[in-house]
Design goal:
6-stranded mixed β-sheet, two-stranded antiparallel ribbon, DNA damage, DNA repair, vWFA_dom_sf, General transcription factor IIH subunit 3, TFIIH_Tfb4/GTF2H3
Amino acid sequence: MMADDDVPSDSSTLVIIVDTNPNQRYITEDPKVLTGCLDAVIAFANSHLMQKSRNELAVIGCHFHKSEYLYPSPGKPLDVRQIDGQYELFALVEKTIKMRLVNLIKSQPQEEKPGESLLAGALAMGLCFISRIRRESSPALKISSRILIVTGSSDTAAQYINYMNVFFTAQKQQVIIDVCSLDKHLSLLQQGCDITGGLYLKVPSLEGLLQYLLWVFLPEGSERRQLVLPGRGRVDYRAACFCHRELLTIGYVCSVCLSVFCKFSPICTTCHTVFKIAGPLQIKPKKKKMKV
């Protein structure tokens, strides 16, 4: 008899977060690679919809100035006709994602230098989408939910608190967070995978991105236990200091906002809390014994 966690769900909700920040190394070297990666993500998304008729999908584009839904479209759905025998839903997903991604890239401020990707905010948007799907679904429907991050950006300690808030919220809501890294090792996101029971994979070659997505991230959480998948490896749970963005083994933590610093400071640079510094202990003089 199978346990509840091993029983396949009636419906699966998948949220894909695609990092489209132009300062990613693989994009700066060859901007055309982004098109190939996007095609792989679209094929992976359609494979998810093909598994079950009740499956739900959302794709979020993450840029350096904002994050927004690429699919489903917030407004009226596009009028898509069947092309070369392609299933209409698959054609709708592909056309909507590509059109809204172009609008997202065009909306970026031209005078502003690209900064870090707003992945923490995109994760929060994904959790809100999953919460809405669960609220609108029938209570008798068993739904499994997961979020997949596809990114080539590096870790940033500036979003450390936001990351931790999202990770533990996902753990409480039983939402799996998976990470597919296209370039660098991401220790903070690997912590999120370990906390929520997800999978972390650094893709060795972008040419085989679709194969890695289908092999590792397409199966649901209940099905992964019966498959041979990459191990999580050793997870580095060291925190990054907010002053120099370096990983620490021992540091100082603000008791108000939980910011981490490598050196002591009387004022927290994050929340500007002033700490009371205890002075040296006063040595009480010994009482002299009175002579009788």
